[in-house]
């Protein structure tokens, strides 16, 4: 099983090869948006890969085009719904973009409420 760690909170999931970064986020409750339902049609699952990029599938043209429309794309940018783990022994560390975190909270008002009440993981200030 590969490990995927989500910054800034440090939540971590163990997932098999073939899982996407978004699958890993779902597995550990990380705040990663998915507004289009994993169809590569938004950029709310935008992540910055900090470590382990070589363990992931290559970007295809659709993902590149979609990332061009994301807020603040960087060299390590990936879409969580498109980046698939290929090395089951890897540690992949990703940072949740502000755009993605905001989209998640917009999509999950109950989680937003927990966050406001101090019951959910907070991003460090
Ligand atoms: S969930 Fe929309 S592009 Fe990934």
Short description:
Helix content is 27%, strand content 21%. By secondary structure, it is an alpha+beta fold.
What does this structure look like?
A five-stranded mixed sheet has the order 2-1-5-3-4. Helix content is 27%, strand content 21%. It has 125 residues and is of the alpha+beta class. It contains four helices and five strands; from the N terminus they run ββαβαββαα. It has one domain: Roll (Ubiquitin-like (UB roll)), CATH 3.10.20. It is globular and about 40 Å long. FE2/S2 (inorganic) cluster binds next to loops. FE2/S2 (inorganic) cluster (FES) binds next to loops.
Structurally, the number of domains stands at: 1
* CATH superfamily membership: Beta-grasp domain
List cofactors, ions and other ligands: FE2/S2 (inorganic) cluster
- Note the total helix count: 4
The SSE string, one letter per element, is: EEHEHEEHH
| Major sheet attributes | 5 strands, mixed
**Oligomeric state of the chains?**
single chain
Radius of gyration: 13 Å
Provide the helix percentage.
25-40%
Number of DSSP E strands:
5
**CATH topology-level name:** Ubiquitin-like (UB roll)
* Terminal CA distance: 32 Å
Structural class, from helix and strand content? Answer: alpha+beta
CATH architecture: Roll
Within the largest sheet, what's the order of strands? 2-1-5-3-4
């Amino acid at each position: 099983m590969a490990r995927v760690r989500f910054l800034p909170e440090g939540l971590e999931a163990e997932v098999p090869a073939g899982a996407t970064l978004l699958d890993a986020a779902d597995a550990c409750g990380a705040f990663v948006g998915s507004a289009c339902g994993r169809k590569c049609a938004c950029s709310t699952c935008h992540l910055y890969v900090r470590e382990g990029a070589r363990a992931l599938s290559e970007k295809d043209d659709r993902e590149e085009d979609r990332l061009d429309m994301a807020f603040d794309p960087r060299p390590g940018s990936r879409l969580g719904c498109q980046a698939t783990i290929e090395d089951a022994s890897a540690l992949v560390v990703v940072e949740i973009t502000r755009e993605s975190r905001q989209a998640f909270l917009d999509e999950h008002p109950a989680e937003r409420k927990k966050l406001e009440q101090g019951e959910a993981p907070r991003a460090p200030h």
